[in-house]
Backbone:
């Protein structure tokens, strides 16, 4: 897995932050997510999908998303 730039938002809030895959992966492991599930999240993010898991909504950072919110 390579490090990728991400936008993350906590569920139930409109606040979002920029982060990276390695930070999110460490947090997901700390929350006892399996390696297979983490791999699925990574692949979905690389494919450009928006992923909601463990109280977070995640999206791969793109030029288009930099100026927009990932939550609707």
Residues:
């Amino acid at each position: 897995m390579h490090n990728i730039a991400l936008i993350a938002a906590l569920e139930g809030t409109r606040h979002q932050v920029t982060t990276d895959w390695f930070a999110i992966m460490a947090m997901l492991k700390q929350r006892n997510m399996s390696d297979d599930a983490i791999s699925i999240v990574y692949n979905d993010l690389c494919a450009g999908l928006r992923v909601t898991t463990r109280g977070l909504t995640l999206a791969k950072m793109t030029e288009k998303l930099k100026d927009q919110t990932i939550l609707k």
User: Anything to note?
Assistant: The mean pLDDT is 88. The CA atoms of residues 50 and 59 lie 5 Å apart. The radius of gyration is 11 Å.
